[in-house]
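Sample 3 of the quickstart, ligand zinc ion:
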Amino acid sequence: MINIEKSLACLRCGNALLPKETYEYCSECLLGFKMEVEELDPKLLKEKLVEILDGFTSDVRAAFQKDPAANSLVEVLTSYPGVHAILIHRVAHFFLKLGLPFVPRYLSHIARQNSGIDIHPGAKIGHDFFIDHGSGTVIGETSEIGNNVTLYQGVTLGGTSLERMKRHPTLGNNVVVGAGAKLLGPIKIGDNVKIGANSVVTKDVPPNSVVVGVPGRIVARNGKRIPKIDLFHGDLPDPLIEIIKKLEARITELEHQREDLSHK
Ligand SMILES: [Zn+2]
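Result:
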């Protein structure tokens, strides 16, 4: 028989430790299974569940409309990894909001195993969301995505800080991000923006723009090609060019020093 009175108390929650609990914390604390939830309002709960269903309906519709290869809704429902990933994500995000420990993250892990798409349960995603093909797509914890956004395979919405703060991108409405593009840091991507495949974007992008390259450069705005770098929005430094310029200056300096020495 277990004698709880003789056990020591858990250092975190103060509950008595069971004889088999040899650590200083109880099993619940070690596993992180503590759940602190305020009383649930049934009306609010219903609203949230309807929101999930509406979101999911819009995602299936978006996949069907945006992919010319989609022949039927059954095909989309059963065979589209992006659709599976966002369905599981919407449920995981809801559980996270409820304060349920562990389960949201485990759901996202299951979704990743099935689809190759890694969406952190904390990410906020609007309706009509579509990830085409999907493998390798990563959406970080503090990402925010507007409505009618399409991502292709290999897209990363990544963080650039080790602090627990807003550290992932915010995307507006009607944004398309091409395959392999990396959007890094808490940057803002405006409405109606297209980002070219394999671009690396680390700075804000104004609405109605097209961005390509590494680092991402704005090449068109309002559907028109931008003839030259616009200092207001497009002053995007090229780190590689900056390094090469510094190296050139250094080499010139060293050459002058060598000449001076040879004249002495
Ligand atoms: Zn404990």
